[in-house]
Description:
The complex is a heterodimer.
Chain A: H1 3-14, H2 20-32, H3 34-52, H4 60-86, H5 88-112, E1 123-124, E2 155-157, H6 162-168, H7 185-194, E3 199-201
Parallel strand pairs in A: 1-2
Antiparallel strand pairs in A: 2-3
Helix pairs in contact in A: 1-2, 1-3, 2-3, 6-7
Chain B: H1 5-14, H2 18-40, H3 43-60, H4 70-91, H5 103-108, H6 122-128, H7 134-140, H8 144-156, H9 160-167, H10 171-194
Amino acid sequence: MRCYDCRKLIVLHLYGELEDEKRRRLEQHLGRCAACRRELEAFRTVRNRAAQKKPAGPSTRAIDEIRHAARVSIEDAGWGRRFYGARAGVLAVAASVLMIAAVATLVIRMGRGPTGPESQPPVILAEPPELSPNPDEGQIGAGDLPRQPDSLMQPVIVPAGLETRLANLEADTFYMGRELALETAPALDRRFQSLEDGVVRLGLEWEW
Amino acid sequence: MEPSHDDKLVAGYLAGDLAAFEELLARHRIGLFSYLRSMVGSKEDAEDLLQETFLRVIAALPRYRAKGKFRAWIYRIARNLAHDRARKLMVAGAPLKLATCNSAEAESGNVVFDLPDTAPSPRDVAMMHEKRDWIESAIQDLPEAQKEVFVLREYVGMPFKEIAALQRRPIGTVLARMHYALDKLRTELHEERESY
C-alpha cells in the first residue's frame, strides 16, 4: 500500500469503519511508514480534543414543548380510537350509507360533465429559465414560474424533460413564488414515482 | 428487514405509548441540537428548529415507513428546515449571519460551535484564546460542508455512508471533506499549542 492509498483509508480507520482486510493492509503500512503514523496520531489527538467538549443539550423549555405536542397528538389519536371503538358498529353502517351516496353522486355528476371549483383544469408548468450548472447556485427566484396554480392542491402538469431537470436539482434548491414556495426536487422526484402522467400536486406540506 | 430500535419506538408511540416517544426524544435531541446549532449558530434558532423538526416528525409519523432509517429521516427534515431558514433570510434581504460569539453564553460556559464575532470585544478575544474554547471556534471556522461532516460523525456518531446519503454526495467526497476538516483542526491545534 502506498501513502496515497493509506490517506484515503485513514479517516475510515480512525472511526472504526474500515473492513477487516483493508484494515490489516493499512496497519501493515502504518507499521513501516512514520509519516502516515504521525498523521493518524495527529488526527487521534484532534478527536480527543473534540471529545473533551461535549455539546450541550437544548433547554428544558424547548423539550417540554416537544413533549407537550407529542402528548396532545397521542391524546387526539387515543380519543379517536376510543370513539371509533365504541361505535364501530354504528359507524360501519353510517360509512356504508355515505359510500353508497358518494358513489351515486359521482355517477350522476359524471353523466353531467365536470362542474365546480374542484374540477379545475390542471396548470401546465412551463420551462423555467436556464439553471446554473452549479447546484448550489441553482435557485429560481419568485416569478420565474410562468404561472402558479390557483389553489395549493390544483394539479400541475410537468412536461417531459422538465421533470428530469427538476429532479436533478439539489435538495436545497427551492421554487420560490407566492406562498407556494416549499418544494424540493427530491420531493418532486418521489411524487413522479408515485403519480402517473407527470401530474404532481404542489402543496406546503412535505411528503416522505 | 429487522426493524431498528427507533422503528420499534415509533411503532410504540403510534400505538399510544408516550414513553416510547420520550425514548426517541432522548436518543436524538442532543445530537440533533448540536447539528442544528452548528448549522445556524445561535442557541435560540437551533432550539426553534429542533422544536419545528419534532413537530414535523410527530405530524408525519403516521406516514413514516419503517425501514430502519429513522435517523436519516429526522436529520433530513432538520437539514431541510435549516436550509429553509437560511433561504428565507436571504429572500427577506437580511444578511445571513451564521453565528456570533454571545458573551452571556460564553460566560455560562455553554458556547457550542459559535463563530468568533467579526468585531470581537477584547474580552471575547481573550475568551476565544482560552483553551476550553478552542475547539468550538475551530470547528465553527471550518467550511460549511466540512463542518457538517465533522459534527455528524464526531458528535452525532453518524456513519460516513449515512452522511453521504444525507449530503447527496459520493462517500469519497464525504471522506475527503472529513480529511480536510481533520487536517485544518490539526493545524489549528498545533498553532494553539505553540501559543502556550
